[in-house]
């Protein structure tokens, strides 16, 4: 199994805008090693060059990019690989889960078809027959905790978390030695995010795979990686053991990055968030928590009609927002947006009295099961979603 080494890597993009040709130094003189079998996280704010560095590993940079320095897989410089050699390395030795990967599945092919295609193109010598590849595809779905029948599903028939699992299954398809995961859980809710991170960590340790994981979220990397590297404006500013980087960072910027995530219950981190311009806890505005309720919902129930049947989205929600308060609605995928939409509907001046959402009629239990009453009052039925 090879080490992955970035040796003084710089990447510059040529751009042409209204003001003529320009250059963006996306990565600058980065030297970093991911030893075989280990896990390394790269964190940094948006635009700091994380994805650019990741794409340099498999020569996936666009044509307007120029790379200097060396990217080594073991002692092989990837710049010197022929196209055939590179094709053999991609997927089979090193695979990548792209940022926003779940949107890059082919929408007109089933999940199973896409897994089989990857196996045929990149590992046809290992899984030689169609039957062997089919078995491998089912094994991969099992590895990422998806039922076998999902192989018949099209991407639009899967949830975001399931699509992300499929992408991880594809990355694992050819038994790679190195996996690069660029923001593998960013678009997922916290519960699915944890499931995916746990699964990745389990697979990496069970199979001894090396992993380079990218995230702007230090806590995600601390969960999954042995070491963390911090990038800023294309440069590497700090590398160390995950725990040390998160708890006793050497660089002020790393501390700033860690502080940018609000601490639960600490109004300072909420009301005066740290930004790259350095605003922070010292400048906490006076927060007046007043008792005056500006927004109130009482007994809100929302039912959607889908295919002629009622779908209960919100059930008996009471919520109030006082002056000076920030209230967050949190929920697993499929619950949060409906709740907030339901509440905004309830508080829409055109549909409800703004200050008294309690005018949304509380439901009667029989509403939930009665299509007739749902038709008469489709937004006020008893629902299953609860706060
Ligand atoms: N194809 C491109 N052409 C020109 N500039 C680019 C291109 N791709 C990226 N850049 C620039 O390179 C810099 C680094 O981008 P990159 O995508 O590597 O950042 P990132 O750290 O992955 O950010 P994010 O966390 O938002 O994904 C940015 O300034 C970006 O605008
Ligand atoms: Mg990126």
Provide structural commentary.
The chain has helices spanning 50-57, 83-89, 111-123, 130-143, 160-172, 190-207, 218-224, 242-247, 252-259, 267-271, 336-346, 371-376, and strands at 4-17, 20-34, 39-43, 65-73, 76-77, 94-97, 178-182, 210-214, 227-232, 235-241, 293-306, 309-322. Helix 3 (111-123) crosses helix 4 (130-143), helix 4 (130-143) packs across helix 5 (160-172) and helix 5 runs parallel beside helix 6 (190-207). A hairpin with a 2-residue loop joins strand 4 (65-73) and strand 5 (76-77). It is built from twelve helices and twelve strands. The protein is globular. The protein starts with a strand and ends in an 11-residue tail after the last helix. By secondary structure, it is of the alpha/beta class. It folds into three domains: 4-259, P-loop containing nucleotide triphosphate hydrolases (Rossmann fold, 3-Layer(aba) Sandwich), CATH 3.40.50.300; 262-287, no CATH class; 293-376, no CATH class. Residues 349-385 have low confidence and may be disordered. Strands 6-7-8-3-9-10 form a six-stranded mixed β-sheet, sandwiched between helices. Strands 2-1-4-5 form a four-stranded antiparallel β-sheet. A two-stranded antiparallel sheet has the order 11-12. Residues 13, 15, 24, 26, 44, 46-52, 62, 64, 99, 216 line the site of adenosine-5'-triphosphate. Magnesium ion is lined by residues 50-51, 99, 182.
């Amino acid at each position: 199994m090879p080490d992955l080494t970035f040796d003084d890597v710089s990447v510059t993009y040529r751009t042409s805008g209204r003001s003529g040709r320009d250059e963006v130094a996306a990565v600058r003189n980065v030297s970093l090693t991911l030893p075989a079998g280990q896990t390394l996280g790269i964190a940094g704010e948006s635009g700091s060059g994380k994805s650019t560095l990741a794409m340099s590993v498999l020569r996936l940079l666009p044509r307007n990019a120029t790379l200097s320095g060396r990217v080594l897989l073991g002692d092989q410089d990837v710049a010197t690989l022929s196209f055939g050699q590179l094709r053999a390395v991609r997927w089979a030795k090193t695979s990548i889960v792209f940022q926003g990967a779940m949107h890059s599945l082919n929408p007109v092919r089933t999940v199973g078809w896409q897994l089989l295609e990857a196996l045929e193109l990149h590992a046809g010598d290992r899984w030689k027959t169609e039957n062997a590849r089919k078995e491998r595809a089912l094994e991969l779905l099992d590895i990422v905790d998806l039922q076998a029948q999902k192989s018949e599903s099209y991407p639009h028939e899967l949830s975001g978390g399931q699509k992300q699992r499929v992408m991880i299954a594809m990355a694992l398809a050819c038994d790679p030695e190195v996996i690069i995961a660029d923001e593998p859980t960013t678009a997922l809710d916290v519960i699915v995010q944890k499931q995916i991170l746990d699964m990745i960590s389990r697979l990496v340790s069970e199979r001894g795979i090396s992993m380079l994981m990218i995230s702007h979220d230090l806590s995600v990397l601390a969960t999954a990686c042995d070491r963390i590297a911090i990038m800023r404006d294309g440069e590497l500013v700090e590398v160390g053991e995950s725990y040390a980087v998160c708890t006793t960072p050497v660089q002020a910027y790393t501390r700033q990055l860690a502080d940018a995530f609000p601490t639960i219950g600490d109004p300072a981190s909420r009301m005066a968030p740290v930004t790259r311009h350095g605003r922070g806890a010292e400048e906490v505005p006076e927060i007046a928590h007043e008792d005056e309720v500006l927004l109130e919902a009482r007994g809100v129930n929302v039912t959607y009609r889908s295919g002629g049947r009622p779908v209960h989205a919100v059930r008996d929600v009471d919520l109030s927002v006082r002056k000076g308060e920030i209230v967050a609605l949190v929920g697993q995928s499929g619950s949060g947006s409906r709740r907030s939409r339901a509440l905004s509907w309830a508080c829409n001046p055109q549909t409800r009295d703004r200050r008294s959402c309690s005018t949304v009629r509380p439901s009667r239990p029989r509403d939930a099961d009665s299509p007739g009453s749902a038709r008469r009052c489709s937004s006020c039925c008893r629902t299953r979603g609860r706060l």
